[in-house]
Amino acid sequence: MDVEDLQTFVAVADAGGVSAAARRLGISKSIVSRRLFRIEAELGVQLLARTTRGAALTEAGVTFRDHAARASAEIETARETILPTGDLRGRLRIAMPLAFGPTHFAPVLADMAHQHPQLQIHSAYSDRFVDLIAEGFDCAIRVGYLQDSNLIAKRIGPIYGKLVASPDYIKTRGAPQTPDEIVTHQALMQGTESWQFTDGNRIVTVQPQGRFKADNATALAAAAAAGLGIAWLPDCITYDHVASGALVPIMTRYPPPPAGAYVIRPPGQHPTRKIRVLTEMLIEHVARNPEIWGVDR
Length: 297
Prior knowledge:
Layout: H1 3-15, H2 18-25, H3 29-43, E1 48-51, E2 54-57, H4 59-82, E3 90-96, H5 101-115, E4 119-125, H6 132-135, E5 139-144, E6 152-159, E7 161-165, H7 167-173, E8 187-189, E9 195-199, E10 202-206, E11 212-213, H8 217-225, E12 230-234, H9 235-244, E13 248-249, E14 259-265, H10 273-288
Parallel strand pairs: 3-4, 3-5, 8-11, 8-12
Antiparallel strand pairs: 1-2, 5-14, 6-14, 7-12, 7-13, 9-10
């Protein structure tokens, strides 16, 4: 049984349909359908029940999906083991934040593509929280404070940030002097996140409140510069605003603890060599170019 057929079946099972799997794999729907037909013909059972909304796994399909995923992973590991040192092949599908990815991390992907001409790199840029397993990503880069999950994370560098507001907002509403005062201000947030600040050796956590939310840090910086509220943002996002005077650091006696940039991957025994190489390149890139974060440290 061809490993590409197995990988295609897993993609269809996880994506919930032929069209979604074809987009994920970067191939035509007809190729996906042919591969599925070959597997079902060889096994002599129906693995997928086609519907108007996509495809649902049959009972046999549910059982076979896990075996197919494990077999594909083992074959991929075996391929990497016997390849010449430094030679990467296959496909690497990675999710990156829109606020940082194109400017901070995309150059590393371009460098990786130059070094490994037989490697296919598919990158997706979005600030939404992607489901790596359900959406078929090999890994993702996430920035901030990590939440507890079963995903495996490798830190590639620190992210420094501060609380900021526009001069007009400070003139009209004042600026919080302590973390407790944040709840009396309009906070600009990505969702319902908590903000953390250091008070000596203690970490203080607050739950900010506000009416303006955006899933992109650059948009939040623009809203803060427009005087809509206070925002906790990474220095690399606010650096130009602060330098021009459009934003002012506030509550500096209580700096936020450094966050981080991480490579996240689904759980498993070992990362593939493609992910290991990417992680090493990102760590080196961040260490060699600290100025990309907008601060001198």
